Amino acid sequence: MTAVDEPAVAASTAFRASDDASIANNRPVYLDYNATSPLAPEALEAMMPFLTVEHGNASSTHPYGVVARRAIEAARAQVAVLIGAEPEEVLFTSGGSESNNLALKGSLLAGETSQAHVLISCIEHPAVQNTCRHLSARFGCRVTTVPVDSQGMVRPSDVLDALQPETRMISVMLANNEVGTLQPLAEISQLLRDSRPEILIHTDAAQAVGKIPVDVRRLGVDLLTIAAHKLCGPKGVGALYVRSGVTLEPLIHGSGHERGRRAGTENVPGIVGLGAAAELACLTLGAEEPRLRRLRGRLQTGVCGAIPPAVIHGHPERCLPNTLNVSFPGVTGIAMLEASPGLAASTGSACHSASAEPSPVLLAMGVAPELASGAIRLSHGRYTTEADIDRAVDELAGASELLGVV
Question: Residue 66 and residue 71: Cα distance in Å, rounded?
Answer without folding.
Answer: 9
